[in-house]
Structure formats: structure tokens, C-alpha cells
Design brief:
Blueprint: E1 7-8, H1 44-66, H2 75-102, H3 106-125, H4 130-141, H5 150-164, H6 172-197, E2 202-205, H7 215-218, E3 228-231, H8 234-243, H9 247-257, H10 264-282, H11 288-292, H12 301-333, H13 346-356, H14 362-366, H15 371-386, E4 388-393, E5 404-410, E6 413-421, E7 433-438, E8 441-442, E9 447-448, E10 451-455, H16 471-489, H17 509-515, H18 521-524, H19 539-547, H20 553-572, H21 574-577, H22 582-589, H23 609-612, H24 619-637, H25 642-653, H26 661-669, H27 676-682
Parallel strand pairs: 6-10
Antiparallel strand pairs: 1-7, 2-3, 4-5, 5-6, 7-10, 8-9
Helix pairs in contact: 1-2, 1-3, 2-3, 3-6, 4-5, 6-10, 8-9, 8-13, 12-13, 12-20, 16-17, 17-24, 20-22, 24-27, 25-26
């Protein structure tokens, strides 16, 4: 089914401003202008009203399209009208998603979740509308359809595929049953995400349990009774697993974190997989994966299995030696211990490995990546590479006091607006993602520029120390901002062909490509300065960092193969696992990582991609092949070569989904893409 698109990768004490229940004269959620959106006016009432008005408008648009007599269809009255219809729905969908993922007011957020479910149901129902499908078919059969531009032909083709693979081959009764199934899938997906976002837990320790954790990290956890309470969130999880000397402490926090949204989401996931399989079979597909891959570059499930199995076999011989190196460090600490490396040991002994073998103090590295200077440095890199200009905007409405707003310019023209929502808070989306707020749309009389945001959960600073990022955080920031730039630079004539509409196993490539720049000294020296002294990161320190780029890469990538294989097993081999405990399936498949599965853990309950990336998690690895191939061109021409950056911007970023992905790659590379650079990065053949 077609869904409201958003990018999700495998991502608070200040009151939200959006709590007032007064209703403004104009519903800001229906605003189609380039004026700042009054996020502080959004409330449950506005969301409910906006949804009702948008659905009413959409119904009238559908009536207008379907009322056109046979043979009188034109691009403007049929396909352009259908694009406008999708634009209105998608634009509202972005604003509603923002409220559901970031707002602190319970009533507003709950209404947004309800509205998101209703809007998705309505949107997917478009592709079960027989008169609408027939209108598109009639236009496709006319001579005018043969005279369309290449992007128009692509939109027409993919629209027909969308109808035909989403129920129009069924009779009326079949479509009714299909819609009921899809509505269940949508409701389960919304509930799954909601359970993760609203999950709250903590764990209390004595000071002695936290030995090894830096005092500045421990201090905010202190309680009046001398105990220390740790809230279960990403930054705290990472700090404990990296620093805590006591294995029991790491183990306890690991289990807490890996049981977020358990047990609620076990049943939700079980039902989600069941109804996805039902939907696929109702549509004539053997599995949900077969259905989901119709509009992907991979095309067929077997191609994905071959890719994942080949990568697993190439990586597997290297995983054991990498784990053995960590196990030796653990043995030195605990010669009496019988068990080898456990999941909660990896971060701790990886840090020790860096400290001892590579003489790299990762805490020292963090001092060169203060959040504000890193953001400004990242802006500098993107501005130079793609010939852009970024300007901070003050005094505009925000949905949360710590959010910041910016405008993006290219060649003197404003391209869009974006926001940065960087730190965790209760009920907020818990991972890292780029989300669209307003879609680009151009008519004969108006051009609406895109608006997007990063929704992240980086470690927040304290009263005594600013937010400091480890190098992995910097890579994540560059990645997510890459999605944002891709979205803002794409101004398609057909709104539906925005960057988020690129194929699911390509969409990560433009962001993954930009991760490489975080490993280049010519890039980091533009902004990596010690927040205390202002000193540029010494080349000798960078060389130590660079030496660790592929340390543990086989372990890291076999984990990605595991996640992708798990997702694909649920969606392509459902018949073989039906009736089994789905957590046991995850345990069984985890054997490929060669790290014992943590008994009592249920990480799948908070593995958000099982909802948002169903049968598409493999796309991270699939896209990485293209990302590294693209970067190889920059390695040849100079990583900060502006001419190459502008050519990439024009050939890939600005195109969005107006051109087939394989064509974009060939145009930029000047050849067929290959996996040589990807395998070279992994250190395998």
C-alpha cells in the first residue's frame, strides 16, 4: 500500500509551546505559503479540523477527476489533478507526523496519532477507488500520453502500477476485504510506534555500581538519598555500555533498553506480520516481501536473499577474530570469567581496544565535536561542496523551545526551510530521522518551498559542559542532514516525485555517501576544534581515529545483515515461522553475529524499522553499495571538489524521483555501478 513517506534510519524539561487550545482564525496545518508555520498554535482541535477539511477537499477533487467524460482526459485535469490530490494529503501528513513524534502535550500528540492512522487509511484507499483508476487508465490510453515528458511518463507508469498492485485487480468485495486488512496494518503500525515513544523506565544504582562512568556523566543522575537513577534512553544506554566497569551494571541497563515497549509490542508485531501476509496473499503475492519489492530496485526476494547471504558469507570469517580480540581484553580483566564477549561487553571493550592498541582516547575526540561548532562545520562542508548557503532564522514559531530554524539558499535562491530538534525528551520519537513538514509544490501562480526537520536524540549538554559528540554521532548527524539536503534541493514539477519518493533501497545512498566525509582530515580540519582551547584537531590524533575506521567493521556489518535477514524472514518466510515465538526467531537468526543472544531481551519490540521499513531493511546495505561507488568519484577528483559536488547535486540530489535511480547513477558515474568500493570499505573480497 502507498504510505505517507518519511525517512527513518536505524532516532525534556522545557514545556512545549503547543498546548494552548485557542483556535486561530486560519488553520495553520492547512497553510500553503512560504510564511513560517505557527507550530505553537497547533492543538488537538486544529488537527481534527484539518483532517476533516482535507478529506472533504480530496473527495471533491476525486469527484472532479472521475466526472470527466471518456476521451476528454488531459494531463492537467487527470494526472496533475491526481498529483495535487496526493500533495494535499502528503503535506498534511507531514505536519501531523511532526506533532505525533515531537509534541509534549498529550492531547495534541494523541490526536495526531489518531489522525495519522485515519489519514493513512484514507490515502491508501485512493488506490482502491475504481473510478479514479479508470480515469487514469483512460488518460494512459489516449495519444496525448505518448507525448509526455520522461518524468511525466514515469509518474503515469508508477501511478498505474500503484493502483494495480494495491487492489485494482480485485473485484469490489475483494477490495473491501483488502481495505479492512490494510486498516488493521495501519492501526498496528501506529500503535507500535506509539508504544516505543511513550515507553518510560529507569533503573537505580549505588555509586559503586557506576565505577568507570565519568563523574560529569553521573552527576545529573544523583538522587537526594545518595542513589543514582538512570532514565532508559539512547544517550544513557550508550554511556553505561561504554564506561561502566561492572559487567552487572552494563547487563542490567542492556536488558532494560532491549526490553523497551515489551511486552506490548510482541503482540502488535505478531499481528502486524500476520496481516501483512494476509494483505500480500489477497493481492496475489506469495509473501509480503514479494509485494513490497515490486517498486524496489532489487525487484525480487531471491535477489535480496542472495545479496544478504553472500555478504554474510564474506563477513563471517572476519567476525570471529574481531570478537576474539575483545574477548582477550575481557580475559585480562576477569581471568576467572567463563563466558566470552556478551552483547553488553562490546562497547566497553571496544573502547579499551581503542585506548590500548590504537592509543585513541575517544573522550579526547569528543572535545573536538561540540554540538554547535560541529553543526556550523557541517554547514560549511555542505555549503562548499554543493555551493549552498545556510542562514539561521530567529524569532519564528517553534514546537519546542530548544528547536532551531534555518533557511537554505542555492545560487542566491531560497530553496527551503529546515529545523533541528536534536535532544531527547519524554514521548519524543526515540531514534534519528529526517521528516518532511511541508512538501514542495509549484503551480502557475505559486511556488511553495519545502520544509523539513531533523528529529534526533543526541546527548544534551549540562550546566557545566556543552553537548559533546563522539565521532559516531558526527557520522549520524552528517547522514541525517544528507537526507534533509536531498529533500530541500529537490523541486520537482510533479510534487509526488520528491526525494522521499525514491525507491526504498536507494533512498539511503545520498546520505550514506556523505558519511565518508567524516573520515577525511581535509573535511574535519574545517571545524574540529577543541571546545576548551580552540585548537584544531591535530593530524596525529586524526590518524589514530582514521586507523580505527574499519576496526570491528565485520561485526558491525554482520549485525546489519542480521537485522535485514530478520526483517526479511518475518516478511518473506512467514509460512515457515507462523505459530512460533517471534522473539525466538530473532534469537535463532542472531547466531550469525557470533555474539550470544541476551536471554530475557526482546529488542524487536523497539526495532522501529520492523514497522516503517517492513521488508526493506536490507536497503541500508543495498544503498551502501551505491553510496561508496559515488564516493569513489570524489576520492578520484578530490573529496571537497566543488565541481564534482555540484555535478552530483544536479545529477542525483535535485532529481529526486523524477528519473529512474539506475539512470541517475549511470549519469553521475559515467558507467554501470559496481560493488568494488563497498567491498573495499569492508576490507573483504
Amino acid at each position: 500500500m502507498q504510505k505517507i513517506k518519511k525517512i527513518v534510519l536505524l532516532l525534556c524539561a522545557v514545556p512545549c509551546l503547543a498546548t494552548a487550545q485557542n483556535t486561530p482564525a486560519v488553520n495553520v496545518l492547512l497553510q500553503h505559503s512560504n510564511q513560517p508555520i505557527a507550530y505553537d498554535q497547533v492543538n488537538a482541535s486544529l488537527i481534527k479540523t484539518a483532517l476533516a477539511k482535507t478529506i472533504a477537499l480530496s473527495n471533491s477533487r476525486i469527484s472532479a477527476i472521475t466526472a470527466i467524460p471518456p476521451g476528454k482526459q488531459t494531463w492537467a485535469n487527470t494526472m496533475e489533478a491526481f498529483d495535487n490530490l496526493q500533495y494535499e494529503l502528503g503535506d498534511l501528513g507531514g505536519k501531523i507526523y511532526l506533532a505525533s513524534a515531537t509534541y509534549t502535550d498529550d492531547d495534541t500528540r494523541n490526536e495526531a496519532n489518531t489522525a495519522a492512522e485515519q489519514l493513512q487509511s484514507y490515502t491508501t484507499g485512493l488506490f482502491l477507488n475504481e473510478p479514479l483508476y479508470k480515469a487514469v487508465k483512460r488518460f494512459a490510453a489516449l495519444p496525448a500520453a505518448a507525448q509526455l515528458s520522461s518524468s511525466q511518463k514515469l509518474f503515469l507508469k508508477e501511478t498505474l502500477i500503484g493502483f494495480e498492485n494495491n487492489g485494482m485487480k480485485l473485484d469490489a468485495d475483494g477490495r473491501k476485504k483488502l481495505k479492512a486488512t490494510n486498516d488493521k496494518i495501519i492501526a498496528l503500525g501506529v500503535q507500535f510506534d506509539k508504544n516505543i515513544a511513550e515507553y518510560k523506565d529507569s533503573i537505580t544504582f549505588d555509586k559503586s555500581d557506576l565505577q568507570g562512568v565519568p563523574e560529569k556523566t553521573v552527576a545529573p543522575w544523583a538522587l537526594p538519598d545518595g542513589k543514582y537513577m538512570i532514565r532508559i534512553n539512547g544517550p544513557n544506554f550508550n554511556d553505561i555500555l561504554k564506561y561502566a566497569d561492572k559487567e552487572d551494571t552494563r547487563h542490567a541497563v542492556y536488558l532494560k533498553y532491549m526490553n523497551r515497549a515489551y511486552p506490548k509490542n510482541i503482540q502488535v508485531l505478531d499481528s502486524l506480520f500476520y496481516y501483512r501476509q494476509q494483505l500480500a496473499q489477497q493481492l496475489g503475492f506469495k509473501t509480503y516481501a514479494e509485494y513490497a519489492l515490486v517498486d524496489k530496485m532489487a525487484g525480487k526476494p531471491q535477489k535480496v536473499w542472495d545479496f544478504l547471504n553472500d555478504l554474510r558469507d564474506k563477513l563471517s570469517p572476519h567476525v570471529g577474530p574481531e570478537l576474539a580480540e575483545l574477548a582477550e581484553l575481557k580475559h585480562q580483566d576477569h581471568p576467572e570469567a567463563q563466558a566470552g564477549i556478551q552483547a553488553w561487553d562490546i562497547g566497553y571493550y571496544r573502547k579499551k581496544l581503542f585506548d590500548t592498541k590504537y592509543k585513541l582516547n575517544t573522550d579526547e575526540i569528543k572535545e573536538y565535536f561540540e554540538m554547535n561548532s560541529t553543526i556550523q562545520g557541517m554547514f560549511t562542508v555542505y555549503q562548499k561542496l554543493f555551493n549552498l548557503r545556510i542562514v539561521e532564522v530567529k524569532g519564528v514559531p517553534l514546537w519546542y523551545a530548544k528547536v532551531k530554524a534555518y533557511e537554505l539558499y542555492m545560487d542566491g535562491k531560497k530553496m527551503g526551510t529546515f529545523y533541528l530538534d536534536l535532544y531527547p525528551r519524554p514521548n519524543k520519537y526515540t531514534h534519528f530521522e529526517t521528516a518532511n513538514i511541508s512538501l514542495y509544490h509549484k503551480t502557475a501562480t505559486q511556488e511553495i518551498l519545502p520544509v523539513g526537520t531533523l528529529i534526533c536524540n543526541f546527548p544534551e549538554g549540562t550546566a557545566t559542559e556543552p553537548s559533546l559528540l563522539n565521532h559516531g554521532d558526527v557520522v549520524t548527524l552528517f547522514h541525517e542532514f544528507g537526507h534533509l539536503i536531498h529533500f530541500l534541493l529537490c523541486h520537482p514539477a510533479i510534487a509526488s516525485q520528491n526525494s522521499f519518493a525514491t525507491k526504498g533501497d536507494f533512498v539511503e545512498a545520498p546520505s550514506q555517501f556523505l558519511e565518508n566525509f567524516c573520515w577525511q582530515y581535509d573535511v574535519l580540519k574545517l571545524f574540529a576544534r577543541n571546545y576548551k582551547t580552540g585548537e584544531m584537531m591535530p593530524k596525529a590524533l586524526f590518524d589514530k581515529l582514521k586507523q580505527t575506521q574499519t576496526v570491528g567493521s565485520s561485526m558491525a556489518n554482520i549485525s546489519q545483515v542480521y537485522y535485514a535477514s530478520l526483517d526479511f524472514t518475518y516478511e518473506d518466510r512467514y509460512a515457515a515461522i507462523k505459530g512460533r515465538d517471534i522473539n525466538d526467531v530473532s534469537k535463532e537468526l542472531s547466531a550469525m553475529t557470533k555474539v550470544p543472544f541476551a536471554e530475557g531481551s526482546h529488542f524487536i519490540c523497539s526495532f522501529g524499522h520492523l514497522n516503517s521499513y517492513g521488508a526493506n531493511y536490507y536497503g541500508y546495505l543495498w544503498s551502501k553499495v551505491f553510496a561508496q561507488d559515488i564516493f569513489s568519484v570524489f576520492e578520484k577528483n578530490g573529496v571537497m571538489d566543488t565541481a564534482t559536488g555540484i555535478r552530483y547535486r544536479k545529477d542525483i540530489l535535485e532529481k529526486g524521483a523524477t528519473v529512474p535511480e539506475a539512470t541517475m547513477l549511470r549519469n553521475f558515474l559515467g558507467r554501470e555501478p559496481n560493488s568494488a568500493a563497498f567491498l573495499r570499505l569492508l576490507g573483504i573480497k
